[in-house]
Amino acid sequence: MDEAHALGSTLAAAWQEAYGPSLIEVPMSMVASLALFDTPTPERAPQPMVEVVELENHAFLSELYTRWNLGAYTWPRLHHLWLPWFEWVGGLLMSPDQLNSDQRIIAAARHIGALAAREGLADLVTHVHASAQCDLLGHLLNALHTQLQEGSSCPEPTPLLVPADNDIALAQQLHPGVVVEDPAAWSGTRIMHLVRELRQRGIDPRTITWRLRATNPVAAATLATSCALWGLGESVVIGTSPNDATWLGTAEKEVRAALNRRIGPC
């Protein structure tokens, strides 16, 4: 979708101007926070993003951290994958000296949150991303990742967001109870295609078991965000290990550990 691509490019360019090409987890976290907590989801954050970005620095960061604490209760199987979304916030909150000295990253994050809200990202997430029509978060991730690689001595190729044609045949073979495994899911564009096709066939995607991997931690956090928006939070396991033989077992252990932290040992 041209609108999603344009918005992704706009936000990536804004981050480049405000901070530079690095730390792409910061702008992605602002967009993910807005997508999950400023759109119709099981829980809402105490304040909308348009108000959060107007808070003074400590309150701004505290509100962002509160949102991700809420995410631990709403999506306990996915929350551990969102470490890139809240680790930078927690680091600033726990270090008063850093909070006082690192004003540029706070100002840049605030700018992205305000811009995303002003550009109507929440409505776009609701209308095209959550409905599995367009991988909006993938467009932003790819724009930011491409910028980051341009200054790298060993650039890592940015995966393409593949068209739906590649996945229609597979979607026609799926039925409740089957397992879909994708060890190179990146932002989840192919999963989105399958979710959309299943819904069009009257099949609830939550009746499928999804086993997905994204070895890039920011991509994995983006994938987990999209899976939450697509309603797959209870039926997906997302791995990040590069080990082809053990990634799934490692991911399942991480989910069990996350659930144990949330509700206690089973």
Overall description:
This protein is mainly alpha-helical and 266 residues long. The protein has two domains: 2-150; 164-263, Vaccinia Virus protein VP39 (Rossmann fold, 3-Layer(aba) Sandwich), CATH 3.40.50.150. The protein has helices at residues 2-18, 25-37, 49-52, 57-74, 83-94, 96-101, 103-118, 121-129, 136-150, 168-173, 189-200, 217-229, 247-263, and strands spanning 179-182, 209-213, 236-239. Strands 1-2-3 form a three-stranded parallel beta sheet, with helices on both faces. β1, α11 and β2 (209-213) form a beta-alpha-beta unit. The N and C termini lie far apart (44 Å). The model has no long low-confidence stretch (mean pLDDT 91).
Structure summary:
The protein contains 13 helices and three strands; from the N terminus they run ααααααααααβαβαβα.
Main β-sheet description: 3 strands, parallel
Strand order of the largest sheet: 1-2-3
Order of helices and strands: HHHHHHHHHHEHEHEH
**On the 0-100 scale, what is the average pLDDT?**
91
Please, how many domains?
2
Number of strands: 3
Stretches where pLDDT is under 50 for at least 5 consecutive residues are: none
Distance from N terminus to C terminus (CA atoms, Å) equals 44 Å
| Rg computed from alpha carbons, rounded to a whole number of angstroms | 18 Å
Number of helices: 13
Helix content: 55-70%
Keyword list:
mainly alpha; Rossmann fold; 3-stranded parallel beta sheet; 13 helices
